[in-house]
Amino acid sequence: MPLNQQTIQNLSWLARLKLPAEREGKILNDLQSILDWVEQLKEVDIEGVEPLVSVTDGIAPMRKDVVTEGDQQADLMANAPESVQGFYVVPKVVE
């Protein structure tokens, strides 16, 4: 895909970027280099390669979902500056 100054100006308008005119040439060269690299990637033979879902083959170990330390409400409320009926009291943030 050949790029030109008009394409760069159009892309900058779409991205809502204000590009100085003196930088358009460098950006044009950089984008063209990126597109050339993408074209090189298209030449890679990927026949028979399975798509990856994850970069690791392992499966995360599962554990039983059990309560290990429960019924500690009184201990937790002891750290609260203020509590009412077992709940933390916090300043109102929405009016």
Description:
This protein is mainly α. The protein has a domain at 5-42: Histone, subunit A, CATH 1.10.20. Helices cover 36% and strands 4% of the residues. The chain contains three helices and two strands, in the order αααββ. It has helices at 5-14, 24-42, 73-77; strands at 83-84, 87-88. A two-stranded antiparallel ribbon has the order 1-2. β1 and β2 form a beta hairpin. It is flat, with a radius of gyration of 29 Å. The two termini are 54 Å apart. The mean pLDDT is 88.
Task: Note the main attributes of this structure.
2 strands
Topology:
Elements: H1 5-14, H2 24-42, H3 73-77, E1 83-84, E2 87-88
Antiparallel strand pairs: 1-2
Concise overview:
This protein has 95 residues and is mostly helical.
Assigned CATH class of one domain: Mainly Alpha
Q: From the alpha-carbon coordinates, what is the Rg to the nearest angstrom?
A: 29 Å
Mean pLDDT: 88
CATH domain fold name of one domain = Histone, subunit A
Distance between the termini: 54 Å
Strand order of the largest sheet: 1-2
- CATH-defined architecture of one domain: Orthogonal Bundle
- Would you tell me the structural class of the helices and strands? mainly alpha
| Quantity of strands, as a count | 2
